[in-house]
Amino acid sequence: MGLTIGITETEARYLNYHNWIIAAGEHIKIIKLTPINIDDINNCQGIILTGGVDTHPKFYKNERINYPFAPAEFNILRDDFEINVFNAAQKYGIPLLAICRGMQLVNVALGGNLIQDIEEFGKLDHRRHEETDSKHGISVVKGCLLHQIAGTERGIINSAHHQALGDIASSLKIAAFSPDGIAEAAEWKDSESKPFLLCIQWHPERLAQQEKGNVFEKNIRDHFLLVASKK
Questions:
Q1: What's residue 25's pLDDT?
Q2: Domain hosting residue 220, numbered range
Q3: Are 62 and 15 a contacting pair, CB within 8 Å?
Q4: Taking phi first (over 0 means left), then psi (-120 to 50 degrees means alpha), and beta for anything else, what does residue 69 get?
Q5: In the annotation, is 100 catalytic?
Q6: Strand partners for 33
Q7: Minimal CB count within 10 Å: which of 11, 28, 88, 99?
Q8: Are 195 and 90 in contact (CB under 8 A)?
Q9: Which of 18, 205, 217, 223 is catalytic?
Q10: What pLDDT is attached to residue 1?
């Protein structure tokens, strides 16, 4: 039986997400979701919000656009589109995996805000340098959904971001932290009657290339696809 996963279009290495998912089986079909085919959400059993350019600060009620490592150009069209994708996933009960920018966008869509630059905020460098992801440990909150999926409270993940969750949306809770206290994963505070949601700050689609079988890559993909198959 086939399984259809929607992956939002991104200017940053879209093919990595596509290949990561289809590597799980020939039965999986991918729909690239864009502003011109948003109605295809209705054909998806699971959705991935991808990484990419910073969300425009206006979406979290911040007027400051000239912060460290701010993009030369924001993509407001994409911001609007992916917020609509997130809202549609909630409306239609579609499981959703949010990666890096996707995690930040979910927090913004639910009323939270962002740390505009982690190092300016006094934390360590979490950025990607040239073509190499950073790496660091994470601590997973015992008993949360991510803990159930990964089966461990500790691990090493890749890192390629300069922004992070600031004030957490009231409906979310933090599921994992970096050693310097940055939120590395988030999920529903109360998941009852809500569709599956897991937000992660790292890039499992690249972690799969760097350390195949890492539980913070393989277990997450397998669980997401399992939940989606039941949609």
A1: 92
A2: 3-229
A3: no
A4: left
A5: yes
A6: 8
A7: 11
A8: yes
A9: 205
A10: 66
Q: How many residues does the chain have?
A: 231
Q: Are 75 and 118 in contact (CB under 8 A)?
A: no
The CA distance from 218 to 160, in Å, is: 19
Tell me the residue type at 220: I
Q: For residue 43, give the CATH number of its domain.
A: 3.40.50.880
Q: Active-site residue among 44, 82, 100, 162? A: 100
Number of domains in the chain: 1
**Mean pLDDT by 10-residue block, N- to C-terminus, for the chain (231 residues)?**
93 95 95 96 97 98 98 97 98 98 98 98 93 95 98 97 98 98 97 96 95 94 97 85
The active-site residue, picked from 18, 161, 203, 223, is 203
**pLDDT number for residue 118:** 97
Q: Is 11 exposed, middle or buried (0-12, 13-18, 19+ CB in 10 A)?
A: exposed
Q: Write out the two tokens for 53.
A: 């350019």
Give the burial class of 46: count Cβ atoms within 10 A of its Cβ; 0-12 exposed, 13-18 middle, 19 or more buried: buried
